[in-house]
Specification:
single chain, four-stranded parallel beta sheet, binds zinc ion, alpha/beta
Length: about 300
């Protein structure tokens, strides 16, 4: 159960015809003085008839005609073509994660250690207090995936974030669907950074996943209390300290036994997502799963 009484505009996203055609994502925003997940879902259903088809340009962002990495034309006639936004050679060059992976931190595991993928964590994360339960990642940070993540963070990065959000969904759809999450929450930027950057890759990824899952995306649920220095400039111990108490819940939200999907572009030490998860749990969330495009390991 999630409810908000802030009277703000809550964007709700629904994969309308997606389940039938696999190609469209629809979106509408509803103003609600008070809402709950149950009401939001029925509201979303009511709203579907009023949702117009997406413009063609948006469709092409979601299923681009060209590889998002090298811009080679994608041959729509090839079997399986355009299910992912990459040409064959770029797809091959991505360092995607394959099982076994650690359920908890999302990192790769040696095949011999597959049994440790149960919930207690791996040699990287065991003994570390992480407030989230599970991590879902597309690949390992580095090489071409690193270039794509940098493109997502550039000023015109939203189309890339959109494509990567759909790619993450395509790769991990079964795991996402099995989660039964109630709400999707992106890691928030501090308002100063929101003003400075024209893009917020975590929010775009979260929009895509919420749309595919058919649950609300609550971008205003978590707030950054402080404008913390970028984690990428810090050592691992500094990263944990840097994000301590960095988030707060926005007034009016209440999470009760909710399963929250927290979305970011990359997970390195897990400090940021763990602090976000801690804040959500203190507010009543029962379970927190993290979704990222890339898992960075040292
Ligand atoms: Zn390519
Ligand atoms: Zn682990």
């Amino acid at each position: 159960m999630v409810s908000a009484a802030d009277g703000g505009r809550m964007a709700m996203h629904r994969d309308m015809a997606g389940r039938k055609r696999g190609r469209s994502v629809t979106r509408f925003a509803a103003s609600a003085a008070r809402w709950s997940i149950g009401a939001a879902r029925s509201g979303a259903r009511r709203g579907l008839s009023a949702v117009a088809a997406l413009p063609r340009a948006t469709m092409e962002l979601v299923f681009p005609a060209a590889c998002v990495s090298c811009h080679a034309e994608l041959n729509a006639d090839e079997p399986g073509a355009r299910a992912v936004p990459f040409c064959g050679s770029c797809y091959e060059s991505l360092d995607l994660l394959h099982e076994p992976t650690c359920r908890r931190c999302g990192g790769p595991l040696p095949k011999l250690n597959a049994s440790t993928q149960a919930n207690e964590g791996c040699y990287r994360c065991r003994g570390r207090k992480m407030w989230f339960d599970e991590t879902i990642a597309a690949g390992l940070y580095g090489g071409r995936l690193r270039e794509l993540l940098l493109a997502m963070k550039s000023d015109k990065g939203d189309p890339m974030s959109l494509a990567m959000g759909h790619f993450l969904w395509q790769l991990r759809r079964e795991r996402f669907e099995a989660l039964k999450v109630d709400v999707v929450v992106p890691i928030p930027l501090h308002w100063r950074r929101r003003l400075a950057h024209r893009t917020n890759s975590a929010a775009v990824l979260a929009e895509v996943l919420a749309g595919r899952l058919g649950v609300p995306m609550a971008s205003g649920l978590l707030r950054r209390r402080r404008d913390t220095p970028p984690q990428s400039q810090l050592t691992p111990p500094q990263r944990w300290k840097n994000v301590r108490q960095a988030f707060s819940m926005s007034a009016g939200y209440h999470l009760s036994k909710a399963h929250v999907l927290v979305v970011d572009d990359i997970l390195t030490t897990g400090a940021t997502c763990s602090e976000a998860a801690r804040t959500l749990r203190m507010a009543g969330a029962e379970r927190v799963t993290v979704a990222v495009v890339a898992r960075a390991i040292g």
